Amino acid sequence: MKRTLVVTALLAASLVACQANPVSGRNQLVLVSEEQAQASSVQAYAQTLSEARKQGKLSTDAALNGRVKRITDRLIVQAGNMYAPSRQWKWSVAVIDEPTLNAWCMPGGKMAIYTGIVEKLKLTDDEIAQIMGHEIAHALLGHGRERMSRAMAMQGGMTLGSILAGRDLSVLAPVADVALTLPNNRENESEADRYGIELAARAGYNPRAAISLWEKMGTASGNNAPTFLSTHPAPGNRIQALNAQVPRMMPLYEKAR
Questions:
Q1: Of 39-43, 75-79, 166-170, which has the strongest mean pLDDT?
Q2: How far apart are the first and last CA of the chain?
Q3: 151 Cβ partners below 8 Å, 6+ apart?
Q4: Are 234 and 151 in contact (CB under 8 A)?
Q5: CA atoms of 44 and 254, how far apart (whole Å)
Q6: If I label 242, which of 54, 116, 162, 214 is the partner at 20 to 30 A Cα–Cα?
Q7: Average of pLDDT values for 111-124?
Q8: When comparing pLDDT for 169 and 244, which is higher?
């Protein structure tokens, strides 16, 4: 009976929770507000960094940290031009010292990139910009809120009424933790590719680096794709789609230079 009530509540909420994303214009099913998503992401981000710090996994490489910050600072400026409210976000980027091929950006601009992806793929600045532009695009496009909504649906026993009414943000913290590990779907990945390559081009990073990045990623993953790629488009299809974007992006890149 309780399960039926929860499912019914989720279905009822979905009828009134379809919103057009202000960047893409695509209708999205969201069960949490942007404010709720950002508040819960702050908690999840702080916990993630705290655990990494305790394990000695926050990078102390000043050169790498400075390099990543210089790149993301330029992308953040363009994010503000693409989505003006993001200028008020409290952006932050961390470099986590793990061999994982991974990077992410939470709602509100809380970001991380792992040393594994930089070192194993021998990434150039242009390629790092493509990765972080892609991750920032996820945040601008509201994909984190969509994942949190999926996590809510998976955790049907949560106090949905309190969440929707905005009365109890604490119950969203575990949802944000789940959303961090829950992968985006392929539609969202392709959407982030399209907007991410534009962010990087407007920030003065070569769009062709998107092609070399995913060629490296495809070679590195082989037949054992990392979690980071589990729901991404196949490398060949992704490269084809990005190649089609390059001619439109090159004038933006040349202008930014």
A1: 75-79
A2: 61
A3: 175, 178, 179, 182
A4: no
A5: 38
A6: 116
A7: 98
A8: 244
127 included as an active-site residue? no
Task: Please provide the DSSP assignment of the chain as one string.
Answer: -HHHHHHHHHHHHHHH-EEE-TTT--EEE-SS-HHHHHHHHHHHHHHHHHHHHHTT-B---HHHHHHHHHHHHHHHHHHHHHSGGGGGS--EEEEE-SS---EEE-TTSEEEEEHHHHHHTT--HHHHHHHHHHHHHHHHTTHHHHHHHHHHHHSTTS-HHHHHHTS-GGGGHHHHHHHHHSPPPHHHHHHHHHHHHHHHHHTT--TTHHHHHHHHHHHHHTTS--GGGTTSPPHHHHHHHHHHHHHHHHHHHHHH-
- Nearest one of 62, 48, 81 to 176, comparing CA atoms: 48
What is the pTM for the complete model shown? 0.82
Most distant CA atoms of the chain, gap in Å = 61
The number of residues in the chain equals 257
Ramachandran sector of residue 77 (left: φ over 0; alpha: ψ -120 to 50; beta: rest): alpha
Burial code (b: 16+ CB inside 10 Å, e: under 16) for 18-46 equals eeebebbeeebebbbebebbbbbbbbbbe
Q: How far apart are CA 114 and CA 94, in angstroms?
A: 8
β-strands 18-20, 27-29 pairing: antiparallel
Catalytic residue among 51, 119, 127, 135: 135
Backbone phi, psi, residue 105, to 5°: -140, 120
Q: What is the distance between the alpha carbons of residues 240 and 207, in angstroms, rounded to a whole number?
A: 13
